Amino acid sequence: METKDITFEQAMIELEGIVKKLEEGKMLLDDAVKSFERGSELKKICEEKLESARLKIEFLAEK
After folding, report:
1. What angle do CA 50, 61, 9 make, to 5 degrees?
2. Per-residue pLDDT averaged across 14-22, rounded?
3. What distance in Å separates the CA atoms of residue 36 and residue 18, rounded to the nearest whole number?
4. What is the three-class DSSP state of 2?
5. Which tens digit of pLDDT belongs to each residue from 27-53?
């Protein structure tokens, strides 16, 4: 699935899995760096989707 097509819920599930693996501390350094990069990308996606939802709610509340 392309990153742009991922839902908020899918991004959160993947992000939670990455965090859990990183917290375990058993990954090779290269894998940990790749996971961190993916996690950062997923965090940004979640923030953008939350901001979009917030703006929609504010718009609808003003009507």
Report:
1. 25
2. 97
3. 8
4. coil
5. 999 999 999 999 999 999 999 999 999
- In this structure, the chain runs to a length of 63
Say if residues 51 and 17 touch (Cβ distance below 8 Å): no
- Which residues lie closer than 8 Å to 41 by C-beta, 6 or more apart? 3
Q: Which two tokens stand for residue 5?
A: 């097509």
Write the CA distances from 37 to 30, 32, 41, 42, 55, integer angstroms. 11, 9, 6, 9, 27
8 A C-beta contact, residue 15 and residue 46: yes
How many alpha carbons lie under 13 Å from residue 32 in its C-beta half-sphere? 10
Q: One-letter amino acid identity for 38?
A: R
Query: Can you read off the two tokens belonging to residue 51?
Result: 């901001």
